[in-house]
Amino acid sequence: EAGKGEAGKGEAGKGGAGKGEAESRFNLPDRQDIDRMLTYLEDVMGRMMEKMKELTEDKKDGRKI
């Protein structure tokens, strides 16, 4: 319950604040951090897709997974 309340409070504050104010209040990530996160996500997604491809091929070959 407490955690839920905090999340709601944060969202409300974010909506009410101007962009500059929100950045200083919530310490949002800068462009470089966002780029790093996106690069990481792309890497993870790529590996996941490779794994899914392997599993699909294994299924086609009739191998047990």
Task: Give the structure's gist in a few sentences.
By secondary structure, the protein is mainly α.
Helix count, per DSSP? Answer: 3
What's the Cα radius of gyration?
21 Å
Q: What structural class is derived from the secondary structure elements? A: mainly alpha
Provide the residue-averaged pLDDT: 73
Estimate the strand proportion: under 5%
Order of helices and strands: HHH
Q: How widely separated are the two ends?
A: 41 Å
What is the helix content? over 70%
Structure description:
This protein has 65 residues and is mostly helical. It has one domain (2-60). It contains 3 helices and no strands. The protein has helices at 2-16, 19-26, 31-60. The radius of gyration is 21 Å and the shape is rod-shaped. Mean pLDDT is 73; it is low at 1-17.
Features:
disordered N terminus, mainly alpha, 65 residues
SSE inventory with pairings:
Elements: H1 2-16, H2 19-26, H3 31-60
